[in-house]
Design brief:
By secondary structure, the protein is an alpha+beta fold. It has a single domain, classed as Hotdog Thioesterase (Thiol Ester Dehydrase, Chain A), CATH 3.10.129. It is about 25% helix and about 35% strand. It has helices spanning about 5-15, 20-25, 55-70, 150-155; strands at about 25-30, 35-40, 45-50, 55, 85-90, 100-110, 115-120, 130-135. The strands form two sheets. It has a six-stranded antiparallel beta sheet with strand order 1-2-6-7-8-5. A two-stranded antiparallel ribbon has the order 3-4. Strand 1 and strand 2 form a beta hairpin. Helix 1 (about 5-15) runs antiparallel to helix 4 (about 150-155). The chain is globular and about 50 Å long. It starts with a helix and ends with a helix.
């Protein structure tokens, strides 16, 4: 186990998302000031076989997931927070045969909505592939059943 409860919670959250397992995503780091996920390059996520460029949908999935899981960095306990709104501005295509990293932070937490922002990059965070802003609805502890996915993320389930 990790020394960081935030890192452990982020890893558990990611581990229950089947589409992220299929994409091979992993938690690179998770701290109170933000989260970084890694999307490994693979032929299955290539959008253009002639160039080897990663499909934009894979980058969108990375960034939606990174923003969503970044909520565990700021909330004292796990809450279900589905995506309300997500905007991604693509700066340039990802370079073929290189992993992509997604960084996200929560910059405002209200009783009902968590606001996030971040970027996708490869070698250099100062040269982003894309910028993202997102809003996530707080459903609160009352929305949780205590079983299944929620219990697994909290560490007490299946």
């Amino acid at each position: 186990m990790s020394d960081s409860p935030i890192l452990e919670r982020a890893q558990r959250f990611l581990s229950v998302l089947r589409h992220c397992q299929v994409l091979g995503m992993s938690v690179h780091s998770a701290k109170p000031d933000g989260l970084i996920l890694r999307l490994p390059y693979s032929p299955q996520i290539v959008g253009n076989p002639e160039t080897g460029v990663i499909h934009g949908g894979a980058i969108t999935t990375l960034m939606d997931t990174t923003c969503g899981i970044s909520t565990v960095c700021v909330l004292p306990e796990f809450e279900i927070c589905p995506t309300l709104d997500l905007r991604i501005d693509y700066m340039h295509p990802a370079e073929p045969h290189k992993d992509v990293f997604g960084f996200a932070e929560c910059y405002r937490v209200t009783p009902n909505v968590i606001f996030t922002r971040g970027y996708a990059y490869q070698d250099d965070p100062s040269q982003p592939i894309a910028h993202v802003v997102g809003a996530f609805m707080r459903m609160g502890k009352s929305a949780q059943s205590g079983k299944g996915v929620t219990a697994s993320i909290q560490g007490g389930g299946q």
